[in-house]
Amino acid sequence: MKFGINCTFTDRSTVTPAEYGRAVESRGFDSIFLAEHTHIPVKEVSPYPFGERPASLYHTVDPFVALSVIAAVTDRLILGTGISLIAQRDPITTAKVIASLDLVSGGRFIFGIGTGWNAEEMATHGGNPAKRGAVATEHVLAMKEIWHHDEAEFHGEFVDFDPIYSWPKPVQRPHPPIYVGGGEKAFARVVQVGDGWFPNPVSPDELAPQIERLRALAGRRVPVTVMHVGPAEADVVAGYGRLDVERIVFPADTEASDPLTALDHLVELTATLKEGVSA
After folding, report:
1. Residues 80-94 pLDDT 10s
2. Secondary structure class of 145 (helix, strand, coil)
3. pTM for this model (two decimals)
4. Do residues 196 and 246 touch, judged by C-beta distance below 8 A?
5. N or C end: fewer C-beta atoms under 10 angstroms in the chain?
6. What's the rounded Cα separation, in Å, for the pair 23 and 100?
7. Residues in the chain with pLDDT < 50?
8. Cα–Cα distance, 56 to 252 (Å, whole number)
9. Is 157 exposed, middle or buried (0-12, 13-18, 19+ CB in 10 A)?
10. 3-class secondary-structure state, position 205
């Protein structure tokens, strides 16, 4: 069982990405995943799915910038997006950013993607929120063409370009792992373009049959990274640990008064879980 951290950095964070990345790696976590929001529209209707919407969403640092900083000061830490809102990103530019980050990090990037909960955010970018699932899938397919071919071209409903040159290519071949976020509605996207699954937060009892259904649909063992939401309660986390999942990722608050001590508390929890598994 692997354990990671999920967070965002903001202009109000009490710790820098460099300091925090070193702390996460030195404490034995295998990964850090950063969320993404370009903005939050003032006139917003979409409900925030995890309770009260935090103001930190308005202040987020671009995850690819923060991950690049972390890449420079760590050696082993897996660097991921959790999640990137791929439907509202330009696929050619994003393919370049990801290949560049995978290169400078020595092949340590995981591309966590999702369609997002904020329809108004995508609409501001000029996209149709009602089609964001189809747009996300096509964007990934277009990016794969760029990563896989020296002369890449793509002709789809939402993306269309004649042959182009674009380097660098990712260090990880054929591309960095793509982990698709969402619930069962995202299963088709996992099968079509994904290498792993970031499930929506559910209880361990609910998650177990979902994993079985996804793997039956895919015809393969799809790796699962659980993005835990809420307090890290030992019994709930232990329940995830009993499932056939790759890692559990814990939420962390970089705006807290003492974020490094909070990391130490998570280390204590994961040590207990590891002891339980080995026993």
Report:
1. 999 999 999 999 999
2. helix
3. 0.96
4. yes
5. C
6. 24
7. 279
8. 12
9. exposed
10. helix
